[in-house]
Amino acid sequence: MSSSVRISPLFLGLVGATALGGVLACTSSHAAQIGGVVLIVLGGWATSLCLHEFGHAITAYRGGDRAVRAKGYLSLDPRHYTDPVLSIVLPLIFVAIGGIPLPGGAVWINHHALRDRRVESMVSLAGPGTNLVLGLLLTGAVATAPMPVALAAGLSYLAFLQVIAFVLNILPIPGLDGYGALEPWLSGPAREFGEKARPWAPLVLFLLLLGVPVVGTVFFRLAFLVYGLVGGDPMLAMTGSALFRFWE
């Protein structure tokens, strides 16, 4: 399996930018700390988008779809995860303006090559599961390793974004991974309806989240609940958010 994975230099560059942000966040300069948090969040979020899609791809590869390797999905190269603007740039812009982080790109899976419906469900769950694991690892690092406040705040906000991505993607709405996990088990008519709803259902969800206060409130309360369950510190996450959006 390890010989099938070829890590892209571009992905390593994203990891390096995130690490540089961590170094800057540990300095005594407030300006450097702000720059460090920005790098942590943007670099870390771009890295997590690649890992999210890699989670789908490696699970599909192990489940029978060998074509994902030829498509470059096992390289962690963001250029292979559909359109770079829709997959990387636009989600980063949404993060930068403080909105709900978009799911990002997608990998095209040959579902007919997968062994069974259980594998199909696992492929869909692997992406948001990756975000949840990343959130858990980040909150665990903040809770156990002594570190400057700016670094802890930046990592905490990045962890909160991972939790938001998990909660958003796990919703059973056509076009999102939660629905993808259920789809193999649905009846023919239900799957046909889901296929028709797939292009517009996520857009309707985002409009509700951004335009209907009660929907957004319920969503973020759920996100904070999950964030607390994985050991996150809400105050540190809010501090990280404030440092990241320093211009507000």
From TrEMBL:
Keywords on record: Cell membrane, Hydrolase, Membrane, Metal-binding, Metalloprotease, Protease, Transmembrane, Transmembrane helix, Zinc
User: Which GO-annotated molecular functions does the record name?
Assistant: peptidase activity
Q: Which superkingdom does the taxonomy of this entry point to?
A: Bacteria
UniProt subcellular location: Cell membrane
Question: rRNA processing: present as a keyword of the record?
Answer: no
**InterPro entries from the UniProt entry:** Metallopeptidase_M50B (IPR052348), Rip2-like (IPR044537)
Where do the TM regions start and end? 85-109, 121-143, 149-171, 200-220
Tell me the GO BP annotations in alphabetical order.
proteolysis
Q: How does it sit in the membrane?
A: Multi-pass membrane protein
* Cofactor(s), by name: Zn(2+)
Q: Which family does it belong to?
A: Belongs to the peptidase M50B family.
Name the chain's protein: Site-2 protease family protein
Specify the species.
Saccharopolyspora rosea
